[in-house]
Amino acid sequence: MMSKSYTNLLDLASGNFPIMSQPREKKRLPRVMTVPGVISELDDDQANSVASDVQSSLIQDRIIIVANQLPVKAKRRPDNKGWSFSWDDDSLLLQCKDGFHEDMEVIYVGSLRVEVDPNEQDDVSQLLLDKFNCVPAFLPPDILTKFYHGFCKQHLWPLFHYMLPFSASHGGRFDRSLWEAYVAANKIFSQRVIEVINPEDDYVWIHDYHLMVLPTFLRRRFNRLRMGFFLHSPFPSSEIYRTLPVREEILKALLNSDLIGFHTFDYARHFLSCCSRMLGLEYQSKRGYIGLEYYGRTIGIKIMPVGIHMGQIETVLMHADNEWRVKELKQQFEGKTVLLGVDDMDIFKGLNLKLLAMEAMLKQHPKWQGRAVLVQIANPARGRGKDLEEVQAEIEESCKRINETFGRPGYEPVVFIDRPVSLSERTAYYNVAECVVVAAVRDGMNLTPYEYIVCRQGVSDSSSSSDSSVPKKSMLVVSEFIGCSPSLSGAIRVNPWNIESTAEAMNEAISMSDNEKQLRHEKHYRYVSSHDVAYWSRSFFQDLERACKDHFRRRCWGIGLSFGFRVVALDPNFRKLSIDAIVSAYLRSKKRAILLDYDGTVMPQTSINKSPSQEVLSIINTLSSDAKNTVFLVSGRGRDSLGQWFSPCKKLGIAAEHGYYLRWSADKDWEICGQNCDFGWFQIAEPVMKLYTESTDGSYIETKESALVWHHRDADPGFGASQAKEMLDHLESVLANEPVTVKSGQYIVEVKPQGVSKGVVAEKIFTSMAEKGRLADFVLCIGDDRSDEDMFERIDNASTSGVLSSSTYVFACTVGQKPSKAKYYLDDTSDVLHMLRALAEDSDPLYDEEEDEDSSKSP
């Protein structure tokens, strides 16, 4: 029986939940969690962290690596009783252990490549845990088929490789039952991780697109879990990714990781663009590290292409078997120039494009007829479907046509090897190949060129009879659409869709002088040998440690349902404003200062009608009518609109245009608080802003009496931000000698007079109250954006300057849970109004301060 949270999660994320039979587990693996304190709720219904505020007394370096498949091989015993297991030396998960220090314990969680009978699963689980430190996740057959061959291979894999389902027969339409199976499978993986995790001490490293929603399941259970994710496939551009019906669910799930890794900057850039366009998140780059601010947490973005295992290849090269294979292949291709391709049988590997390029090269350069041979190794297909069958048929037809056209006795221009090829046999082919050609139309990384370079280098201390003094050389023709392309600067990069261009590149590669081949090979070998798989895993883990260093210092809690769940992480001193606490302080004080921002604080940013409601007017009028209160509206808006809107509030003070204009009450005149009234700079700034407005669709200029503001909230997010940055530099340059400041804010660029800020307004109000003998004993300041941070900062400094006493109740409050100089927060404008309403209910509009002072003096 499935847990209630499982059903709820699927209901919330994807509508109706299909019935999927899942056998009940007879027993679970023993937990090895050492969590101090009380684990109050381990039921799946709870989204609270079981991690306490105190770190575990057991300190042991351990990482749990989670992937779709375990790095083990399984084989049925000859007597058909039980299973035998061995390490899969080709598995990247196993190889990345070399990057960890010797004391690091590694636990693997994943599925097996074979189906294990439910009656044997407990014994297999215990054996794998005891002997291999592996925890298998057994997926029921119906979930497995829909999860792997369904959602992963029919939806995610094509989409991430830029193939859209334009028709039901081409890629397949989105099927919600497959998505539900994907979620179900990720849930099962999370349960296996939870069985062995120590959340206080362990790190979790999740791999690839099969498990992209796993971070949410784990983060719901352990708020402070240190968790990284690495995507081994491409991440598509936002235009492609946005077509996925569950786009936001996957993005938000990934953002529950602490570090997200990609092979190339292109993939990371596409991911960041999706976060910006769909979730409104902007990244920052500091000292070489890219970070995304998300509810107080900083999610690191890691860009590091994976490498190969040097030791494994060098071991194969030194094996006597390898030398025998090389000699055999040299005899087979004696007098021929070998071009080699090693690819999976996949629709995105461009195998047929490569064959067409070979055909074109033989036509355009007849000198290679009878001399050049393309050996294409095709590893077995991992997926299945009509598209793959069509590609296979096309490849067979091309091979047949090319060999019939250009072949002759003793010469086949294309040798197609359609079977599994071991690393040992592969290295032999690398050894005899003059050039390796990779023509994939899209590939996450592709390590074939790396393997080829190392094999061509050979092993320096090998006892092989080959002369080690012979210069090493290699050539590469690689698609510009694969992940390893940026790191191979000496390769000839091609657009595989351009058959003629690829053919010319192949001809150039095998015609190049030996000296040039040698120089390019040396450059590539230096990079590949120093950026191996150990370097990659060590670098990722170091960045994961850095990203998680403040986990146990921050206050964390989870909010949200389904895939909207996220963890809010805040400074220990940053907390939600308690209405009871502020009302209590309000009642005990007699000289109060209340400073309120308008847009985003008492008026929602998304509201079309920006004029205040009757409720807002009533609350503010009640507060400002209390003689104990000095209430100010501090806004960036113009004085005319603010004065008109709040005309019923006779005692309300207004600071308009960030304080350039200030009025103490409705019966007082407006004061100018700026340093000068020369606005000649308008004639310089306005033409610049108009230039950017004309070229940025959705932007506009707001002209105030003292300032110019360029808005780009309705423009394309990426282009608007880029234009704002360019405009900021442009304006700072042309206004360098003018008495103005140029600042950027939330979707704005503003030019205003120097010395004008909300912080100056706050200080002026406090100083005026102190000069009148009414030193404030209560301060409430609420705002929501960067301009309000000036007020919070001035309030912090006010007690040292004497305009506030050390005993003053100070409530500096930002709207929204985000990094701020304020010590308090409220979630949104409704929270703000709820709090102000509570203060208004305890206010006395008829209160006379002088009468109170007289009564206090009477006996």
Overall spatial form: elongated
Q: Identify low-pLDDT runs.
A: 1-59, 462-467, 849-859
Give the count of helical stretches.
Answer: 27
Let me know the average pLDDT: 86
Major sheet: arrangement of strands: 5-4-1-6-7-8-11-10-9
User: Main sheet?
Assistant: 9 strands, mixed
Catalytic activity: D-glucose 6-phosphate + UDP-alpha-D-glucose = alpha,alpha-trehalose 6-phosphate + UDP + H(+)
Keywords: Glycosyltransferase, Phosphoprotein, Transferase
GO molecular function: alpha,alpha-trehalose-phosphate synthase (UDP-forming) activity; trehalose-phosphatase activity
Protein name: alpha,alpha-trehalose-phosphate synthase (UDP-forming)
If you had to describe this structure to a student in words, what would you say it looks like?
There is one protein chain. A 9-stranded mixed sheet has the order 5-4-1-6-7-8-11-10-9, with helices on both faces. The chain has 27 helices and 32 strands. α15 links the parallel β15 and β16. α12 packs parallel to α13 and α20 crosses α26. The chain starts with a helix and ends with a helix. The protein is an alpha/beta fold and 859 residues long. 39% of the residues lie in helices and 18% in strands.
